[in-house]
Structure formats: structure tokens, C-alpha cells
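Entry 14. Ran structure prediction on the chain below.
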Amino acid sequence: MKIARCQAIPLNVEMTLDAAGVSRRTNLSCVLVRLDTADGLTGTGFTAITEEEVVAAAVNEVAAHTVVGMDAMDHERIWERLRWLMSSRGQSGYGMHAIAAIDLAVWDLKARALGLPLWRLLGGARDRVPVYATFGFGFFDDAQLVDAAREWAGRGFSRLKMTVGNHALQRRDEPRPLSQVIREDERRVKAVREAVGADVELCIDANCSLDPYHAALLAQRLEDVGLAFFEEPLVANDVRALAELRRRVRVPLAAGQNEGLASRFVDLFEARAIDIAQPNVAITGGITQCLRIAGTAQAYNVAIANGGAWPFHNMHLHAGLAHGGFVEWHRSAVLLCEQIYRGLPQAQGGWLRLPDTPGFGFEPDWDAVREIAKRPLSRGTGKA
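Output, C-alpha cells:
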């Protein structure tokens, strides 16, 4: 099953987020990778939370010529070839995003050729996965945030996640004291907990926007809220500081969605820095590397879950593996996917059922993709 063509398509997708009576226009960018075989099969991969222009160029100008002519059944050989081409000295970043997108397309091709849903090819541990809804964005005021929480809980989601930190370190020169951010976050999280009650699992995500002092301060002030986890509390996922933070607070810590190298997860596990590892197949080197990370996490007795969104790709990893965990139903990511794919499953009652059709189980809407591709790209504004 020889690969005859490899093409990356950068996209900047506009959307409207509607929740709690609020409509907000925004955009997210992504890269779609298409692999065509000599015998007429097509597989597609995906990556996001990056600069789509750069990653598409890395695929089209650097990686494509390497994978053309290779057998799509040989995912390990392809991944190793790409690793030595784009990450030979431990670099991750854009190169690992490119590898992830190509690797997902390879696995899609492989599963389609075998006539299997990808989650079954990966192990078939379960045919549905639990999801948590990311609902609580920084642009909501307090009342809107509470209304949004009630709205999502009313849809049957018993696990909710909201953002905190609100890019605190990035915005500290506005001026905007971090102590003020922590007070605001404490008030907002406690208001959501009061609104949804104790039976709803509540998580928070700082998106790497806090320093150790303020992350600890927030976690300590929220210990009585009963948080399920605190995601990416610290800038740059500093392993040493995460381990110290975990020793100081009683809130479980989660991280890993933006890591490019499997060795970084070993560092996190050895340091006992996190309670939940969050490899993301669309970012962390694709299915091939995430399988290795998931196995390592299981060996270290560390739970895994999907962070960083893109549920329709990550659900296959978590359904395939016995060690799989929660999948993130991130509203803006779902809206993006609904514009470029057909046949996507929908979360019902806090669960996402896996498709029985081969590969990922959904298809790109190539007409829509071609139209979106005509629009200007994001120039760094498409990472939300």
C-alpha cells in the first residue's frame, strides 16, 4: 500500500461560540494532511494549536518527499524516518506537529485498508468513552459563566472544565496584578461549584499561565471545592516546579498535551510531578508516539486523559486502550471539526460512542475544505 501523495492544507476556521446567551466570533487554525495511495485509498490526519502556515510548509516542503513511496502499513518505519528527519536532536515544536498529522493519516489509511475502525485496531477496549465539557472561558462574566455551567450540566455532562489564569503571566504588564487574577478565579470557580452542585466533577485549566507561587495559592484556596484536576498550572510545564507544587497542594495535577517528546513524560513520571498524563494524538507525535506514552504511563501507574481538545481523533486512543481515560469535548474545537468533517459522532449524556466504520469513521468535507482554504491564514491568532 504505497503512499503516492502527501499534501498538507493549512486552514483558518471562523466560528461563533454561543452559550449562556452570549455570541462570540472567534477563529481556530489547523492543518489537514491527506495521504493518497497508489491503489486509490485516502487517509487524513490533523494537527492544531500551532501556526498552521509553518506546519503545512514543514509537511509539504520537508516531510512529504520522505513518506512518498513508503508503505502505509509500516507506521513504525514511517515514524522513525520522520523523527530522524524533523526531530533528530530532540527538537519538538512544529516538527512534532507535522509528524503527528502525517502519523494520524497513516493510521487512518491502515485501518481503512484492513476494514477496521481505528479504535478496534488499537485494541478495542471499549466502544464508548466518557467526555468532559470545556465550557468556562475567560470572556464570560461571572453571571454568564454560571449560566453556561448550568446549561452544560443540563445537557447531561457530569464533568466540566473551566479556564483560570486568563493568560496571567503574558498579560502582567497591562498592568494586571496576578493576585487580582487569583481572587477573580477563586470567586468564579466557587460560583460554578455552587451552581452545579457536588455531583458534577469540576476541573480547571490554566493553560501554562501561572508561576508556582500563584498556582499554589489558587489551588490552596480551592481545596474545599473538590476539583477533579488542575490542568497545566505552570508556565512551560516545568517538571521540577510541578513536582514541588504537587507536594504542596491537595488538588490532582494534569499536564502533557503540548509535549512533543515521550521522554518528557518519563521526566514527569520519575519526578512524580503529575497525577494525570495528557498526551494528545494531534500534537504529541500522533498515535504511534501516544501509544508508547500511554504504555509508559500505565507502567508508572499514572492515569491518562485527553487534554488539548480534538476529541474525534483522541477518542480512538482512549477507546482502544484499557488504560484509556476521559476525552475533552471542547466546544470551539468541535465547531471547527463540524465545518471540515462529515459523519462526526455527537456526545450524549457525557459519553461519546465510537463509530463502526473503518479508519477514523468520519470523512473530510473536501468542498468545504477548499472554500475555507481560500481565506486568509491566522498569522499566529488561531490557537485560542
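The first helix runs from residue 52 to 67. Will compare against last week's run tomorrow.
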